[in-house]
Amino acid sequence: AAEISDDLTRVLYTAEQVQERVNELAAQIDADYQGRDILLIGVLNGAIMVMSDLARAMDSHCTMDWMAISSYGSGTKSSGVVRILKDLTTDISGKHVLIVEDIVDTGLTLSYLVQNLRSREPATLEVAAMFRKPGAVTAPVDVKYVGFDIPNEFVVGYGLDYAGKYRNLRDVATLSPHIYS
Ligand code: PRP
Ligand code: MN
Ligand code: MG
Hints:
Layout lengths: L7 E6 L1 H19 L4 E7 L3 H10 L4 E9 L12 E4 L9 E9 L3 H11 L5 E9 L12 E5 L5 E2 L15 E4 L1 H4 L1
Parallel strand pairs: 2-3, 2-5, 5-6, 6-7
Antiparallel strand pairs: 1-9, 3-4, 8-9
Bound molecules: 1-O-pyrophosphono-5-O-phosphono-alpha-D-ribofuranose (PRP), manganese (II) ion and magnesium ion.
The site of magnesium ion has 3 residues, from loops.
């Protein structure tokens, strides 16, 4: 039977390595926020895994809200067009907001989002991203909490998709070119 692993070339981070790094980020966030309530804003769909693990690794109180925003569509390259597909359900003014993302690639999604959320006047606004591709940043964005800097390759797993698939892969791995070429 076809399995996810058939489509991968190499594992960059195992599920255990990812979880260990998430725990470190959570400890850092707990220390920085000093017991203040945090509003975590997850960016659908990619952030679902890191949101769920990060929130549970934190000792601080938090609430969660979600935005759906897309820059990729279904391909492997950013289209450069950022669209809000679903807005927040809560008012973030005066709140300590932490945006949670799976990956910063070009930075277009986050730079748009930071600008958009800043105009709603949160008390503080920071970003946590599990992965960052430093080589590909065309719109620089200040990411306070970064899990791993990764090479500029097409990676999947832990929320990262290709054409909507592979998000449920527990490891983070490179996708075999025969899948997307
Ligand atoms: C991916 C990823 C980030 C964004 C990063 O989302 O989850 O949100 O692209 O790319 P950028 O830095 O070049 O903007 P995508 O638009 O694929 O939607 P998804 O989260 O539903 O997969
Ligand atoms: Mn995304
Ligand atoms: Mg995607």
